[in-house]
Amino acid sequence: MWFDSWSEILRIVLVGAASYTTLVVILRLSGKRTLGQLNVFDFVVTVALGSTLATIFLSSDVSWAEGATALGLLAGLQLLVAWISSRRPRVRGVFTAEPALLLEGGRIRHDAMRRNRLTESELRQAVRMQGTGDLSQVAAVVLETNGTFSVISSSTYGDGSALEDVRGLEARGDDDGRDRSGPGAP
Q1: Is residue 30 within 8 Å of residue 79, measured between CB atoms?
Q2: Which among 19, 30, 64, 91 is placed 20 to 30 Å from 98, CA to CA?
């Protein structure tokens, strides 16, 4: 239980170092997206990479070549999904969530809050963390695809073009459907 053999320890050191190096190389080759802020699919791939690395380290039944192949396959699948998602907007929804509008023009959108299983307390915390103490000074709060909150103040809303892909944004304003004055404006 406490010690099996020196050969197993040596195997862990050698295969572990080689596997770790392989994973670092694969992650560097696969680009920043693999380690960026995670959506659901990215999170699953990250957990699978960690699990695979642990298996390579600790299981003498798995060779380094098998483990390196598994790591490469996971990174390749992640790249394939990212490539498909960037070129096929209809498929993107299978792998990533849509951003959701939680607050608009200082008013909480309770339907969106329920749909995303969030509390008003969590929303208020996100607003406070951006240094704002008055919800009426907030033009929009968006729950992003990676689970973070984007808080946009009324003074920085501009033409609202950054919100075009946000679920729940009402089409208002001039001919192109964008409100140039910001949410909550007359």
Answers
A1: yes
A2: 30
Task: Produce one character per residue of 64-90: b if its CB has 16 or more CB atoms within 10 Å, e if not.
Answer: beebbebbbebbeebbebbeebeeeee
Give the pLDDT confidence of 35-65 residue by residue, as tens digits.
Answer: 555 667 777 888 898 999 999 988 989 999 9
Rg of the chain in Å (alpha carbons) = 23
CA angle 63, 75, 66 (to 5 degrees): 10
pTM of the model: 0.60
β partners of residue 107: 104
DSSP percent split of the chain into helix, strand, coil, nearest 5:
55, 10, 35
Closest Cα to residue 103, out of 149, 40, 158? Answer: 149
